[in-house]
Structures are given as structure tokens and as C-alpha cells.
């Protein structure tokens, strides 16, 4: 990843204080992750539990590395996710929130979670609508075993830079409008992180700019 390291350093230098870079390491081997760690990255995002666990084992000596689950949450994988990921970005419904809350209590864990929102039509994505979040407020405020930290968003494909900025601003405005602890905004990937940063993102999930393009 020699060529990508220069892009990584440029990206790190461009981030304002308080913004965390989550390197999306799905399909990337443990040794490549170790190289990114050597370049200063401490947060890595995975979307498949079965792929992530062997990497975690091989990189267990990196004690200040933090793993983020960013993929689609499947109910049958919830326990493994709670066991191994201190951050979960893609909590996309009350049903999965309730399941995670129960399992976290059983395991005596307190993962930090973000609620994935879907504020625009997109058949390929899941997430909370603004109305669903409002309706669930009492239940979200009563969570005991999950640390609710903020919102997460993935935009539809094909938007202009101006449309991306407006969409990310809509997410930020929703976070500010709700009486919940939503200080974190996980927004922006390799193709749209500049607009996400302009809208107030505190976590950006960047993969191909760091590790190069992948086939899956």
C-alpha cells in the first residue's frame, strides 16, 4: 500500500481536531492493516463478523486498536458483534436495538452505538426515518446497556456534491433536534467525505483511498 500511504497521510492532515478516521478494512489482510496502524490509524471498520475475527486474533498485540462494525446487522450475529466490537455504527431499527440491548446486558458489555438513518428514498439501504426515531424516543432514552453516541448515514449513489452536502446537513440537523446524546456523526466515505466533513461529520469511514480499490 505504498501509493496509498501518501494519500492516507494527506487525509490525516486534512482532518480537523475531533474527527476520527475509521479505515474500512473489509477484504484487507491483517498485515496490510498493521501497515496502516504503523502510519497512525487506530480505528478500523469491518462489515462481516466471520472475516473480522481472524484479523482480530492476528492483531491482538495492537492493544490500542479499536474495531468498528459498519455492516448490515444480522440478528444471528448480534452476540458475536457485541463480544468483539466496541463500536457498532449500523443499528438500523428498534428490533435490532432491543436485541443488542438484551445481549449487552447478558454479557455485561456497553458497546457504543450509532443509529443508521435513512432520510431519502433508497431501496438498497435500511435505517430509521425521522418519524421512527421520534416515536422510539422513550425507549431509546431508557437504554441501559448500550451507549447511544450518534447517527450514521450512507447516501444513495448518483448525488451531486451539492446534494450530498444537503443530505449530510439534514442528518446533522436531525441529530441536533432530538433530545438524545447524539454527539457523533458517522458520515462520509471515500467518494463523499469532503461534503460530510463540511456538514459536521465526526467519524468518516474511508476504505479505497487508504487500501486501494477492491473487487468486493
Overall description:
The chain has 216 residues and is α/β, with parallel strands linked by helices. The protein is built from ten helices and eight strands. It has one domain: TIM Barrel (Alpha-Beta Barrel). Strands 7-6-5-4-3-2-1-8 form an eight-stranded parallel sheet. α4 crosses α5 and α8 runs parallel beside α9. The protein starts with a helix and ends in a 5-residue tail after the last helix.
Strand and helix layout:
Layout: H1 2-14, E1 20-24, H2 30-38, E2 43-46, H3 49-58, E3 66-69, H4 78-84, E4 87-91, H5 94-107, E5 112-116, H6 130-135, H7 137-141, E6 147-153, H8 161-177, E7 184-187, H9 193-199, E8 203-206, H10 208-211
Parallel strand pairs: 1-2, 1-8, 2-3, 3-4, 4-5, 5-6, 6-7
Helix pairs in contact: 4-5, 8-9
CATH class: Alpha Beta
Average pLDDT figure:
95
Give the amount of beta strand, in percent: 15-25%
How many domains make up the 3D coordinates? 1
CATH topology annotation: TIM Barrel
Number of helices: 10
What is the 3D shape? globular
Radius of gyration: 17 Å
CATH superfamily: Alanine racemase
- How far do the termini sit from each other? 18 Å
Order of helices and strands: HEHEHEHEHEHHEHEHEH
Low-confidence stretches: none
> How many beta-strand elements?
8
Overall CATH architecture: Alpha-Beta Barrel
Helix content range: 40-55%
